[in-house]
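#lab-general

N.A. 3:47 PM
ok so I finally got the sequence cleaned up, no stray characters, all 104 residues accounted for. can someone with queue access submit it? mine expired

B.Y. 3:52 PM
send it over

N.A. 3:53 PM
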Amino acid sequence: MNFRSEEWQHERTQTWDFNFDCACSHGGCDMVSKNILMCFEIWLIEGGFKGKRTQISVQYFNAKQRLEMDCTGRMNKPMKRKYVLFLKQYLNGGKEFLESLKVA
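B.Y. 4:20 PM
back already:
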């Protein structure tokens, strides 16, 4: 892996770091683990979403949808639906599914 590729791998998981830290400070940390959030973010990006971090939320956009999770861990309805799809894939694929999404 070259430097540029490593830099991209690092940058693509940074959107959740802020949100996860914020959610933990507001008591939302029990909802989702940081490892799951990072894998979920990678899954979204690989699915064509672009991430954006605001002061109070993480947002993902594509041509059809806006997904959002605020710093308390609350998700809008489209984000909840995507998260359920992600969890179903996780249940079907197990640990290997998550490992395929982890940053090297």
